[in-house]
From TrEMBL:
Belongs to the N(4)/N(6)-methyltransferase family. N(4) subfamily. SUPFAM superfamilies: S-adenosyl-L-methionine-dependent methyltransferases. Keywords: DNA-binding, Methyltransferase, Restriction system, S-adenosyl-L-methionine, Transferase. Gene3D superfamilies: Vaccinia Virus protein VP39. It catalyses: a 2'-deoxycytidine in DNA + S-adenosyl-L-methionine = an N(4)-methyl-2'-deoxycytidine in DNA + S-adenosyl-L-homocysteine + H(+). This is Methyltransferase. It comes from Desulfonema ishimotonii. It comes from the Bacteria. The lineage of its organism: Bacteria, Pseudomonadati, Thermodesulfobacteriota, Desulfobacteria, Desulfobacterales. Signal peptide: none annotated.
Amino acid sequence: MTIYQNSLPFNENNPPSQDGTYRDKLIQILAQDLNFHSQHSGYASHNFHSFPAKFPPQLPRTFIEALTHPGDIVLDPMMGSGTTILEAWLAGRRGIGADIDPLALLLSKVKVTPLDVQTVIRTGNTIVENATSAVRENHLALSETLKKQWDAKTRTFIDYWFAPETQIELTALRLEIEKIDDPAVKSFFQIIFSTIIITKSGGVSLAFDLAHTRPHRAKVVLSKEGAVLIGQELRDNPSPRIRFLTKTLRSPITEFKKRFQQNVRSLPETAQGKIPPATFSGNAQWLALADHSADLIVTSPPYASNAIDYMRAHKFSLAWMGLDIDKLGAKRREYIGGEFLNHFEFEKLPEASAAVVADIRDCDEKKARVLHRYYSEMTRTLREMFRVLRPGKAAIVVVGSSVMRGRDTRTQHCLADIGRAIGFEVPGIGVRSLDRNKRMMPVSANGDKTSQIQQRMHEEYVIGFYKTE
């Protein structure tokens, strides 16, 4: 574990802290081993759904337990899969989370909503039984429903990524889920429905690597019985890559049943002793929260330049939930770290951060503008975090550094620099190593593994921002 403490080549003239005990505790935590590689992270409802670039739940829990008291407000303004919100809820704090991603909002709410287990089991069994019966007995009616389900562009997307027989079973499941009257129970099963689509292997779609947001379509597709449905000519002369991109269809109903039985075992059954969290649709740059209202912030913003493209994966299940591809594309433009630059309002950056953008501009003007957009968005986000955080409290920001045109964007240093310009102290930046099979940034197979940039792709940075009294 490494900690940068008053040693960065940026503005280090922080004013003395007004709360030495709290500030010292923050520094001590940042200096701890924050890797958590050997610890189980799938407890409670953390394993409900795949989500790219999740930090381990032990990370927010460490700061929540050390820096807050029961009843305190813990905020995550970019909550993603709701890891911080769930940990706050489990610890008896009041979690508040915001996000603009529809799937993130649904998932975070489900993970902290207690349900009656027996009711969920009965409902799940009914869904499976009725969907199975519908596929067997009402195949034609399901096909007619499919024809009316989407606009032309969304229809093309569905046909490209989902085999016809898969579409029939997914339609049967979706129709059964829509019959559920209880909104909380319906949301629980919508998440299970999404889970069988968005997985590391691509779930029941024709995609691979959906959980890593860079899907590739299968080149060869086999039926459940082993018959070749797509790519017979490639199947006859398979190369190693073709073998890798060969997929055997799985029954959505069977996968749904498996996942339902798994998730129900982790279902929160009671809220006794826990404070109901609040989640809402909102942009972290403009939070609908009062000044000085949060006791702790723990969050992980996106990478710059859509390095992890959440919507690219999430639209696979959101389209099945009735959202059009065009509308999802428009929503994607709002995400922090995007590449859409028309009519964007850029912020003036501190000198050192501006120099990083200028370094990228030397080789790629557009990439530099994309990076400037990211640091502008993060300037507004950090400004909001400073506004809503109580004096004498901390904001923990977990980031990874991107690489543009072979150059490190130095995200952790730039965000620390921006935070200081806003008024934060930065007592330290912890460095945690990522498991190779869990990291999200690709490392070149032929690149120099000893280079600074390649090594940083295996690291994540935990920035400790402190708001003085």
